[in-house]
Amino acid sequence: MPEVESLARFLSEKCVGRVIAGVELTAFSALKTYAPPLSALHGLEIESVTRHGKFIDIAAQGLHLVFHLARAGWLRWSDELPTAPARPGKGPLALRLRLDNGAGFNLTEAGTQRKLAIHVVSDPQLIPMVATLGPDPLEDSFDQAALAAVLAKAGRAQLKGVLKDQRIIAGIGNAYSDEILHAARLSPFKPSNSLTDAELSVLYQAVKGELSGAIARAEGLAAKDLKGEKKSSLRVHGRKGEPCDVCGTPIAEVSFADSSLQYCPTCQTGGKLLADRRLSRLLK
Ligand SMILES: [Zn+2]
User: Fold this and answer.
1) Is 195 left (phi over 0), alpha (psi -120 to 50) or beta?
2) What is the 156 CA–ligand 1 centroid distance (Å)?
3) Contact partners, residue 118, CB within 8 Å, separation at least 6
4) Cα(1)–Cα(169) distance, integer angstroms
5) Label partner for 228 (CA 20 to 30 A): which of 39, 145, 234, 256?
6) For 274, which DSSP code?
7) Does residue 10 contact residue 222 with C-beta atoms inside 8 Å?
8) Has residue 26 got a pLDDT over 60?
9) CA–CA separation, 139 and 78 (whole Å)
10) How far is the CA of 260 from the centre of ligand 1 (A)?
């Protein structure tokens, strides 16, 4: 989410006050709404670019172009877009938005997953996944009591899953949940309602610190540089086998839900390796 926040700030600087000159869709399955049509955006002035969880919301005179980039999706900004209309093809291009000054962006999705989701709505709350988002940890109102409340509600669910669940806390994905738990020195498998006051306080600082640190590092970067910045600054996520930068222990990995997580056994689990519970369930 920090990179989505940075992207929203970048777009806000580039787009607010400009008029939408055209929107061309080339990956038809990415558009999840059919009324109002994409063409309804033509000629409207962009008033704001904001973020809801991991969704970006471009508001223009009563309509909203809202998109979720998912894992393989990205936005490529251009100060000078090609003038030829975008055509459906085999490439990663899904949608092109043109501004009245010739600039604009391409939404792309690499690979074959097709998870990029684009919506045109009169109110972002009409999108079920936006309407059900939990509190946003970057909001000032998200204080330690707010974190305590969402963890209590999550019961014995494991911290890793709870931090990633958009309905519980909005905007934290697979990478930053690993980073937050490493910074807080907590086991990803710890039940959410089992934290001491001290652990809660450390987790709260880690949530705020990891996210705001990432946003500060991304400040001023162009859209194309955001993903690289994110990857190079992660300390545990995606670093299986590399030494922990706190204690030197090799970072470990375990399967979790439909992907995997990375953690430091020394810093986070008292030296114990976490067992793949999906596998042990299968073997029983
Ligand atoms: Zn460590």
Assistant:
1) beta
2) 25
3) 25, 30, 31, 32, 65, 66, 67, 94, 95, 107
4) 11
5) 256
6) P
7) yes
8) yes
9) 30
10) 18
